[in-house]
Amino acid sequence: MTTSMSLLIHGDALSAWRVNWAGVIIGVLGGSTTLWMLAVAAGVHSGHCTAHKTIQWLVVTSGLTALARYLTL
């Protein structure tokens, strides 16, 4: 997944997907969660979604994605 995330960060999403699609999904999830947490820290109203629930969602979703990738090797 390291290679796919590196490619994704450098803007080569297609190559990143070819290397490891799970790394792309987990990278996007992690990046969007980080942006959301920074917005909340800056004072943007988060609605009903707490940081605790968001982190739980991220961990479960990322874990299931990694498991799916492992099982489809």
Verbal overview:
- Helix content is 78%, strand content 0%.
- The protein has 73 residues and is mostly helical.
- It has one domain.
- Helix 1 packs antiparallel against helix 2, helix 1 packs across helix 3 and helix 3 packs antiparallel against helix 4.
- The relative contact order is 0.14.
How many domains? The number is 1
Which residue ranges are poorly predicted, with pLDDT under 50 across at least 5 consecutive positions? Answer: none
Element-level helix/strand string: HHHH
Strand content: under 5%
The whole-number mean of residue pLDDT values reads: 91
Q: Whole-number radius of gyration?
A: 14 Å
Number of distinct helices: 4
Q: What global shape is seen? A: flat
Quick structural overview:
By secondary structure, the protein is mainly alpha-helical. Helix content is about 80%, strand content about 0%.
Task: Fill in the keyword field for this structure.
0% strand; 73 residues; single chain; mainly alpha
List strands and helices in order, with pairings.
Elements: H1 2-9, H2 13-19, H3 21-41, H4 51-71
Helix pairs in contact: 1-2, 1-3, 2-3, 3-4
